[in-house]
Write a structure and sequence with these properties.
One of its GO terms (molecular function) is nucleic acid binding. This protein is an alpha/beta fold and about 850 residues long. The chain is built from 34 helices and twelve strands. Among the domains are: about 220 residues, Nucleotidyltransferase, domain 5; about 100 residues, Orthogonal Bundle (DNA polymerase, domain 1); about 70 residues, no CATH class; about 60 residues, no CATH class. The strands form three sheets. It has a six-stranded mixed sheet with strand order 1-4-3-2-5-6, with helices on both faces. The protein has a four-stranded mixed sheet with strand order 8-7-10-9, covered by helices on one side. It starts with a helix and ends with a helix.
Amino acid sequence: MEVNEKVKIVITVASLVAATVLLVAEYRRRRHGRKQTSSPSSCYLHSETKPQFGFKRVLADNSYSGFKHMKKLDDVFSSSIEKPNNSHPYETEIAVLLENPRLDEVEFLRGECSLEMSGSYVWVETEYELKKLAETLAKEKVFGVDTEQHSLRSFLGFTALVQISTEEEDFLVDTIALHDAMSILRPVFSNPDICKVFHGADNDVLWLQRDFHIYVVNMFDTAKACEVLSKPQRSLAYLLETVCGVATNKLLQREDWRQRPLSEEMVQYARTDAHYLLYIADRLTAELTQRGTDFPGNAAASSLIYRHLNSHGDNSSISLDAKELVRELCAWRDLMARIHDESTRYVLSDQAIIALACKNPTTAEEVHHSIAQADLATESSPSLSLSNQSPSDVICSHLNDIYQMTRDNKLPKLDALLPLVLEKCLGTDGTCPVSVFNYSLLINFKTKIGVHSAPKQNGHRKNLKQFTRKSSRDLFVKKFSCKAPVYHNCRIYANDGRLLCYCDRKKLEWYMNRGLAKLVEEEPPAIMLLFEPKGRPEDEGNDFYIQTKKNICVGCGEGNHYLRYRIIPSCYRVHFPEHLKSHRSHDIVLLCVDCHEVAHAAAERYKKQVASEFGIPLFVRRVVDSKEAASSVECDESRGDVKDVGVSPLHLRTAAMALLRHGNRMPSSRREELLQTVKMYYGGRDISEEDLERALLIGLSPHERRKLERKKGVPLKYSAEVAHMNKQENSSNEHGEEAPGDSEKYMNEESSIVADDSGGDGNTSHQQNSKLSLLGHGPHGKQVVEYLLREHGEDGVRDFCQRWRQVFVDTVHPRHLPGGWNVSHSGRRDFGEFSVYNPSKRHSA
């Protein structure tokens, strides 16, 4: 018996081996035969016909050229600016809809809707049927759309089917048979009065444009609505199941949609994707309307409540009051995260919010314990993974706030609660520091929560305005005030022991390191020069430079913060002769923020007065045509008012950028206003797109132009040309191009030590040259100084400086000016033999 079984096993194994050998041999024979019958010059496409080969015209081929948008016949820009090449043909219509959405005007369903899908549908495969469909859709106010694409046997892929559903009928459009006639549907898809409903329209819109030049104008995307409502899922299958109670097999999406006829399952799937879109859009719109004011954190709260109820069902312990607490906690968490620049998950986890809402703790300790336990129960808690601390530092600092929210059922509504929280944190006596991250909350928060939600009380409004202004001031002080004392009051003595000037430590170290001086006192440090300086304090007839200076505002005496302020604006000073400006600190003083603001405003007003007096406009104006230039000058002189002539570089660039980006869709009045701004720079003539491109670069420094080029990723057109033009218009003096370094700068003091102290601006020409274009007054300042030197010589410049000092004194009424400061200060200095500013030395260099 055992022998027979062994024989059977051997026979079975032998049979399997024989069958395997036969199969391998047959496979090799067929493969060899196939190779023999293949011709090196033949291609499988000769014997295989693809559906897309029947298309007479394709809008996107397999070449390396980019896609070209359709050109509308009436797409002519009314002004002198043309639209960019290959721009979206319906950009204007879409922009109008974005500015004025019509969602409240759309009725996705006209009455009661049955969720049952009938057995009938319309198959559209002829041009006549397509025209009838277009006529039907033109009468509708809304219809649903979906598409199916085939991409496996096509390099770019192509649209194989379009599903369209109205409230009464479902249409399946055979886009393979009608590929060359699909433009018939273009008018209804681009009609802004008809809303098209898609789900996840990104690819659908792309395919319709690429394959048929069909552009969608006025669209409602149910996937985007899910994002706004913070739905736990965004897929259409999720919406079909949760909203409509319909299950669908998404695996059918991978079927070969080229095949004809479609299987019954594929038809059912295609109809389902479009048939329920109108009902889903109607439900989602109702949810969006019910949300009301979009409070901070509201989306997170809705999602959190939904996920909790979905996971617990009828066993959920969250009540109606608890849901309201969830919304309050989410709003509070969002605001605190913004104030402290933390993530919302770090501030308070979702699990902790649900725990607080369900347990309703009665003490601050219970609040702390509930949050800690909720975070410990979740391994992915940010409080544990990032800092090993739960609750977070934010919670620990504001634990009482959460306790009050959980304990008091009579808290004010969110529209009143959140401004109170903001004021408590960042108000006049706020508990949290103001920073660059949270300052804008003070200004923009009431806009975020809605106009009707702003505080109603006049007193509260006044307080809000006051602490907003104070916070703005505090932030400005923190960002721009001097971070260290300006005046060190170190002393420099001549080799005969006479005091020459006060300076900072850096200058003393420079002399000591080069063996040009010796230390004579330790604290405060003082040095004695080992050479004879060129100038002495008595040479200038005043003792300003041999007086100690206090690090306080010269106006009011504020000592906690201060900024440097140039009494004579840099746009003039930078063009002064070197011996009237180099290393002169007399006209650079310290001012607090408040005094600085007053002085700056007065200086800007006086600039306009100077512009009017000298007939030199503040801003540059480029005139290409010389005849036009002559006529414009005559017009300016006849008006006798030149202070408003020209345009600042910043305003010019802003206007040019707006026109290039949005000119074709902005209101005509606004477009004309910006055009006039640019035309003012070009002397009033009509402008082209090339002029706008050039205007983008006007006034930019080389560094700023390079930065803009890196941002765009390509070299900017006209960059070299505009750089040369900026150089001519700003008329930067040669000293700005060859600024001395620190060693050369201090060598200047070897010959004329009296000329400087720690408050001086040193190489003013070099520092200010790059800023002239931003100030916009550089050419004006140069022309004023040239006029003064030409008509009155250096005395004219000195008188001009005295006028500015008098403006400063009359405006600020300074009570803490250093001793020796005088309105009639001459400002002149002589240069020694080794000074880099010595004319003979500069000439040889």
